[in-house]
UniProtKB/TrEMBL annotation:
The chain crosses the membrane at residues 419-440. CDD domains: HisKA. The keyword Phosphoprotein applies. This is histidine kinase. Residues 487-699 form the Histidine kinase domain. Gene3D superfamilies: 1.10.287.130, Histidine kinase-like ATPase, C-terminal domain, Tetratricopeptide repeat domain.
Amino acid sequence: MKLTISISVNYIIMMTHCPNTNKQKTTGWMKQRISLTSRILLSFFFLLSPSLNAVADVSTEQDAALRQYFYKCASQLHSADVLQMADTLYNRASQLGNKHFQVIARSVVLDYYYFQGNKDKILQLVDEVKRMSREYNELESYYFVWGSRLITFYLKNGLPNHALLEAQNMLHEAQSDNYLLGIAECYKAMANIYLIQSNPEQAALNFQKLIEIAEKEEPVDINLPVYYYSLAENQMQSGRLDEAGKTLNRAETFLANLDTVTAYQRLCLAQGFLRLYIKKGDAARTKRTIDKIEQLFATSEELAIYSAYLRESQLHYYMSVKEYDKALAVIDSIRTNNPSSESNLLTLNKKGDIYWEMNDRAAAAEYYRNYIYANDSVRKLSMQKSADEIAGLFNLRQLEHEKQQLLIDIQDRRLTTTYWAIGTLIGILIIAALFIIHIYRLNRQLKESKQVVVRQNSELLQSSEELRKARDRAEDASQMKTQFIQNITHEVRTPLNAIVGFSQVLVEFYQESETEEFASLITVNSSYLLRLFNDVLELSNIDQIEHLPYDVVDNINSSCNSAIDGAKSFVKSEVELIFHPSEDEVRIYTNPSYVTLILDYLLHNAAKFTQSGSITLDYVISPSEGVIRYSVTDTGIGIPVDQQKIVFERFKKLDNFSQGSGLGLSIACAMATKLGGTLCIDAEYTAGCRFVLTLPFIPA
């Protein structure tokens, strides 16, 4: 069963884009580049973009619980508390192995910073969510954060060139993936860009492509009426009224075939027809349509947040029927409800138009003059911002060009080296040829020696063959041993997992103390046995690897926190488990999985021999030496100095009667070595035992 999650956030993002291009009226006065209707049209999409859209496979109660907690997170998007809630959602999803909700959890964090306007965090989290989505094959989230977050952020902040570059890159990648929803997201972004750039022809073309994809979606895209309205509006701006009428008729047919139609969908359709009838001069239909729009707002509470659209529709209507006093009242209402600089520009220009039509030339001239002064100031800022944006893009291109040039230079040097190598090889071949000729001449004098050499060579070949067979037998035996260990470990781990799981069920189901005690013993001892087989399997895997990678960028505290969280289950209640991070956040190159595993072995060893007191995990970064020193310190029984080396040998135990296989420390030591580090015991510490793990420090 598939369920589409669409959580609408009560947060309206209105696009503010300063007009800077004017056109002549018949009287010579100037109008702004982007009409009020186009601005309202853009706001449709910025209203849609703050929604978290995902597809959740609600197949289990656990998935349903994650979904409900996600709803709770979405309701707190504008509070800093949502960051901790998102971490909780991520951890729960990780424990359940639900990669989809792991991506959604990080997207919640992105949305928080998106609404805060934090550019650095937005860029960082977009890259992170894209990486996770690509890794987990969550393409819907991948293209959503790219288009509706990053590109929309650029558009809202007046960076259309950045937005267009990202949209082109996204379209290329979506086409490579052959992912229709991603392609649709690109077309929507490019249409918005062309709207801002006052290019209705290109905007209409992209809306048409968007609609072609949206009409084929299953389930039907609830935003399709907005796309129809957007296409029709741009067709009207281009003077193609007949095409706009056909588009709106398609939208009307679409709504008629829906089982449930929202007031918002009806509003989109009605606004489109209102604009069309005004353009055609159809007064009767215009009147009926504006009455219908006002009736929708009067009867539907959900449209309260779209009151700006009602005022925009009334303004167009009153100007079309020359009721200028009412139009002026609507403009004052717009100015009151949205006291921004952009709103001030719109009201100045519109009032100039109205007073001109009322033949009040003096008032019109005053408003036009104020509009020109205000618009010039805004346009200068916009031009400066555009220049800065172009300069930034130029610098980026320049860096890319320099990078390509550097690669070419490296290739040239490699070719030069290759030519020298070829020349050297030719010289060697010539010398070898002369040497062969010399040997050929000597060969006639060494016939007897040749027979000896042939005989010895035959013996060597025979010995070599025997050695090869012995080596093959040894390799086969080693492979059989490894395969046997892996197979038997897997075969035993499967029933052990079942025993552990069902014994935990018994503990929870039977509350009698004796039964609970027996079930707990089964659980504990099965867990010990399962850890033994895990250790054997890990040892077998480590033996097959020459070295471990150390190239993942992560926060240094992540591995420590993961190890501490894992250790809580086996540390005795009388022992305090402490973690002292020396830094709040340091991004380094590391191997989070294996570093966490090494720390887990050390913490498990400390917990086994510490009955009371504390176990402390901390680390020290030494940039001058280029190393990180992790330490696990306990207040347990300690290890005698003369036996501190043998504890890292396999199957070595100081107390043969203590629980454990004697493999944990040897596995941890092998992992540390293959990560390029060391593991040792601090002999100077005598209040218990302290293990010191030293690994390379490579800042990210």
